[in-house]
């Protein structure tokens, strides 16, 4: 690939109907020179959408999946549309997609234990559904989204959903940025068809809102796709640590000068996506935040959590100390104590401990628990309290997998 232009096709969708989306998919595939020509009769094709949430608009367009599956099936392929959890089955129940593809949950498939060659974070064997490792042609169908920790997500991060059920947690434990690059090493995507008909913006995945943008894009390279769609959304590719890492590992270009954008130009398609908050400011005196040594992802997570819980923190009558980042000695701890991130594992007995780099959105429940609010039994499994205060969660129900974001 060095020295070659990596193409990304862009087109507009003025009408969100299935027919209009189908026409847009046809246009971007034509602009790429028919990338499905490599699919042969009897080949096993897997299409991976972003479809694990029920909330309308917070998922890949079913019409886009229908358009891609129909074209792969026409080549004589055995087509699967697959995602972790059973939510996609519920969303796609009754869809004409079933004429062209089998809709399956990775949670129901046999697992293969694999070692990722060249992994830097996921250096231990991981369990991957069989059809992921054994398919002949793998298609990503992501939805463009902001993200409170990694800024923006699309093609590359969509592969976190290859891990079934609760095992997505391992990505946060090992470090999200490098882990998602590792997953792209494990399962390269032969084709990407990005849904930006509707995007998710704001403080996602803690909150966020959907916005109609009316774009579809396609590429054979995930890094080129994400670099281009970041530029379309007003985000510089070099702001995204996982793209910088992917480029260093030779997975694709992070400079628009090295990408051939076909169809609608970046400037014509461009809009400014509403990002998650990044300013880490306690909402009032008495909320003490010590995060000078925290990594960028954990600092952004904390900023997003402060925004999400602002009203609750203002109403909380006591003091609270929130600590994140490596440190030999903890600062003065006043009031309720919350420790954020893997770097504070050795101090985990000092307060409510949220593991991960960064933690997941659901783990904001730990901050609410520290304020004395009730949390559900599933939420209680997502943080650790000192053993001296009765921190066992053995008898609690775990959250539904679709809640683990």
- Percent of residues in helices: 25-40%
CA radius of gyration: 21 Å
Which oligomerization state do the chains in this entry correspond to?
single chain
- How much beta, percentage-wise? 15-25%
Q: Which geometry do the CA atoms define?
A: globular
**Cα separation of the termini:** 34 Å
Contiguous helical run count: 13
Mean pLDDT: 93
Number of strands: 16
| Main beta-sheet strand count, sense and barrel state | 10 strands, mixed
Order of helices and strands: EHEHEHEEEHEEEHHEEHHEHEHHEEEHH
Q: Which regions are unreliable across 5 or more consecutive residues at pLDDT < 50?
A: none
Q: Structural class of the helix and strand makeup? A: alpha/beta
Task: Tell me what you see in this structure.
The chain is an alpha/beta fold and 405 residues long. 26% of the residues lie in helices and 22% in strands. It is built from 13 helices and 16 strands. It has helices at 18-31, 62-73, 87-91, 130-134, 169-174, 176-186, 222-232, 241-248, 266-269, 296-308, 310-315, 365-370, 377-380; strands at 6-12, 44-49, 78-83, 102-105, 111-114, 126-129, 137-141, 143-147, 151-153, 191-201, 209-219, 259-263, 287-290, 320-324, 336-340, 352-354. The strands form three sheets. Strands 1, 2, 3, 4, 7, 8, 9, 10, 11 and 12 form a ten-stranded mixed beta sheet that branches. Strand 8 and strand 9 (151-153) form a beta hairpin. The radius of gyration is 21 Å and the shape is globular. The two termini are 34 Å apart. The relative contact order is 0.12. The model has no long low-confidence stretch (mean pLDDT 93).
């Amino acid at each position: 690939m060095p020295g070659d232009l990596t193409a990304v096709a862009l087109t507009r969708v003025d009408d969100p109907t299935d027919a209009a989306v189908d026409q847009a998919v046809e246009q971007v595939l034509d602009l790429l020179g028919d990338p499905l020509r490599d699919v042969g009769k009897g080949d096993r094709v897997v299409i991976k959408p972003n479809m694990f949430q029920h909330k309308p608009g917070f998922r890949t367009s079913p019409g886009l999946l229908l358009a891609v599956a129909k074209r792969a099936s026409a080549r004589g392929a055995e087509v699967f549309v697959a995602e972790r959890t059973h939510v996609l089955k519920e969303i796609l129940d009754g869809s004409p997609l079933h004429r062209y593809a089998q809709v399956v949950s990775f949670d129901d498939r046999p697992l293969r234990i694999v070692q990722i060659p060249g992994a830097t974070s996921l250096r231990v064997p991981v369990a991957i559904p069989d059809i992921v490792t054994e398919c002949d042609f793998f298609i990503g169908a992501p939805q463009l989204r902001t993200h409170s920790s990694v800024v923006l997500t699309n093609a590359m991060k969509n592969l976190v959903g290859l891990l079934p059920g609760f095992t997505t947690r391992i990505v946060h434990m090992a470090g999200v940025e490098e882990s998602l690059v590792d997953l792209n090493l494990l399962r390269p995507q032969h084709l990407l068809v990005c849904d930006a008909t509707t995007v998710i913006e704001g403080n996602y995945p803690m909150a966020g809102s959907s916005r109609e943008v009316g774009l579809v894009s396609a590429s054979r390279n995930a890094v080129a796709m994400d670099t281009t769609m970041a530029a379309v959304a007003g985000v510089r590719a070099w702001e995204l640590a996982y793209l910088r890492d992917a480029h260093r590992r030779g997975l694709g270009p992070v400079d628009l000068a090295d990408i051939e954008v076909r169809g609608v130009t970046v400037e014509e398609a461009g809009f400014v996506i509403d990002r998650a908050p990044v300013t880490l400011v306690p909402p009032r005196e008495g909320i003490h935040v010590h995060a000078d040594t925290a990594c960028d992802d954990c600092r952004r997570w904390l900023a997003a959590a402060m925004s999400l819980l602002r009203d609750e923190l203002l109403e909380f009558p006591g003091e609270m100390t929130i600590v994140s980042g490596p440190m030999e000695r903890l600062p003065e701890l006043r009031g309720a104590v919350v420790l954020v991130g893997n770097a504070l594992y050795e101090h985990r007995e000092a307060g409510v401990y949220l593991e991960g780099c960064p933690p997941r959105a659901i783990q904001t429940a730990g901050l609410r628990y520290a304020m004395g609010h009730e949390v559900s039994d599933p939420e209680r499994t997502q943080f650790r309290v000192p053993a001296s205060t009765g921190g066992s969660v053995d008898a609690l129900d775990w959250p539904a997998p679709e809640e683990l974001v």
